[in-house]
Automatic annotation (TrEMBL):
This is Histone-lysine N-methyltransferase set-6. It holds the Pfam family SET. InterPro entries: H3K4_H4K5_MeTrfase, SET_dom, SET_dom_sf. It comes from the Eukaryota. It comes from Saxophila tyrrhenica.
Length: 329
């Protein structure tokens, strides 16, 4: 799925904002402009997994879509999730919850990121070699766990996000290349040194516990792309249909990722099941950019300085929307 196209819009280059969605026709208020497919990669955080449907993300629904979910995973997917589950259970004393931890250390620099991934790549390579020489992955896991080089900290949420993306790559490599790999990447996506380590450790751990058939998709390149793409493109999965409700996880929706931010948005997004619906919140004229808000409604009460500062801190860009340009002068 390359950038989406429609009779209503085209994806085009926008001044100071990369690519964006531009109306090619008049769009009336409340028109559905775009409906996304389910995410290419996602995670429902571990503490919500019992209450949130893995297939449609409905909160408090238990497991009614379980059979649909199983059918979509296929044999390799089911084996991979079972192995990951067993691995996490066996490491229950080492579990951390990275997404809710405050960043107490500064962002790592390029050199630290490069060195950390190089070391992870070497560990993963020796794991692959051991796996090729013995079919007993349990033996390998025990042996590597006993080795001090084995990363002890386990982050189930990062592991789940990466595994879902590796499974997508394995099942639909052409789509992965056309959609996930084409997204805007954040080359420095790590909030802190522990965050960097949690991600590179997860890659090593997946290399150790994924089924053999999946190993061609559990690569450094696939994992790094999934991590870099999530930073600038993922959408929060909330308990209700909008951003205000409880934060349950996040997902990468490549087709939906071309909507830029505006502090005066003309599109509102709403989660419908596992996908998103984008509707015009006002009339849009041909040539006008279709934008959502990344500030969840706070753009209505914040000053231009506050808005720009929040977007810079959380998203890493200086807002170039019409409203900010007009207000900032
Ligand atoms: C979800 S992506 C949107 C699509 C992106 N423009 C692209 O080319 O793939 C978010 C990124 O778009 C850019 N962006 C979105 N809204 C913007 C704005 N109002 N001003 C400047 N850059 C913006 C930023 O680089 C941001 O990290």
């Amino acid at each position: 799925m390359p950038p989406p196209t429609s009779d209503l819009f085209a994806v085009q280059e926008i001044n100071h904002a990369g690519r964006g969605v531009v109306a090619s026709d008049s769009i009336h208020p409340d028109t559905v402009v775009y409906q996304s497919t389910p995410p290419a990669a996602h995670v429902v955080f571990r503490q919500y997994r019992q209450e949130v449907c893995a297939d449609c993300f409905f909160y408090d629904r238990g497991q009614p879509c379980h059979e649909q979910w199983r059918a979509k995973q296929g044999a390799v997917g089911l084996e991979a999730w079972t192995k990951l589950h067993d691995f996490i259970q066996s490491k229950s004393k080492s579990i951390t919850n990275n997404h809710s931890l405050p960043s107490l250390t500064p962002k790592p620099d390029e050199d630290e990121v490069r060195r950390t991934w190089e070391a992870a790549g070497q560990t993963a390579m020796s794991l692959r070699q051991s796996r090729a020489s013995t079919a007993e992955s349990e033996t390998i896991l025990r042996r590597t766990a006993a080795n001090s080089a084995w990363p002890q900290v386990v982050d189930p949420d990062i592991l789940s996000y990466l595994l879902s993306g590796c499974l997508y790559h394995n099942k639909e490599v052409a789509s992965y290349m056309a959609d996930v790999a084409e997204l805007e990447m954040d080359t420095m996506p790590y909030r802190s040194t522990p965050d960097l380590q949690a991600h590179s450790n997860s890659y090593i751990q997946l290399t150790a516990c994924a089924p053999g058939e999946l190993l061609s998709s559990v690569t450094e390149s696939v994992c790094q792309t999934l991590i870099s793409a999530a930073s600038h493109n993922s959408f929060g999965i909330h308990a209700g249909s909008t951003d205000g409700d409880e934060y349950l996880g996040y997902g990468l929706y490549p087709g939906a990722s071309y909507f830029n931010h505006s502090c005066r948005p003309n599109i509102r997004k709403q989660r419908v099941g596992a996908g998103w619906e984008f509707r015009a919140s006002k009339g849009i004229t041909p040539g006008e950019q279709c934008c959502i808000t990344y500030l969840g409604g706070d753009e209505e009460v914040c000053t231009v300085t506050e808005r720009r500062s929040r977007l810079k801190v959380h998203w890493g860009f200086t807002c170039a929307c019409k409203q900010c340009v007009e207000e900032a002068g």
